[in-house]
Amino acid sequence: MLLLTQKLAACQAKCNLCLNACLDDSDMEKMKTCIRLNKTCAEICGITLSTITSSSFFSKEVLVVCAKACKKCAAECKKHANDHCQQCAKACEECAEACTYFM
User: Fold this and answer.
1) CATH code at 61?
2) Is residue 56 left, alpha or beta, with left meaning phi > 0 and alpha meaning psi from -120 to 50?
3) Is 27 within the bounds of a domain?
4) How does pLDDT run along the chain (103 residues), one tens digit per residue?
C-alpha cells in the first residue's frame, strides 16, 4: 500500500507541475488537452489517495478510474517533447500500473 500512496502523490505532483509549465507555453492553445488532463488526473490522484487511506468501500472503483485517468494523461503528455510532459507521462504510467496492481 505504501508504494501505491507514493505513486499517487508523485503523479499528482508531476501533473500539477506539468499543468503549470503548460500554462507558460508560448503556444498554450496546442497544450489545452494536456492542461485539462493534467488537472483532472491530479484531482483524481488526490481523491484516490484520500479514498484508499480511509479504507473506503469504494477503493477498488476509484482505483479503476484513477488508472484510466493516468493512462489517458500519459498518452497525451507523450505527444509533447517538453521535459515536464515526458516526466509527467512516466509518473502517470507508473501510477496506473500501481493502481492496477492494487485493484
Assistant:
1) 1.20.1270.360
2) beta
3) no
4) 889 999 999 999 999 999 999 999 988 889 999 999 999 999 999 999 999 999 899 999 999 999 999 999 999 999 999 999 999 999 999 999 999 999 9
**pTM for the whole thing?**
0.96
The tally of domains found in the chain comes to: 1
DSSP letters, the chain, are -HHHHHHHHHHHHHHHHHHHHHHT-TTGGGGHHHHHHHHHHHHHHHHHHHHHHTT-TTHHHHHHHHHHHHHHHHHHHTTS--HHHHHHHHHHHHHHHHHHHH-
Can you give the residue range of the structural domain that contains 83?
A: 2-22+32-102
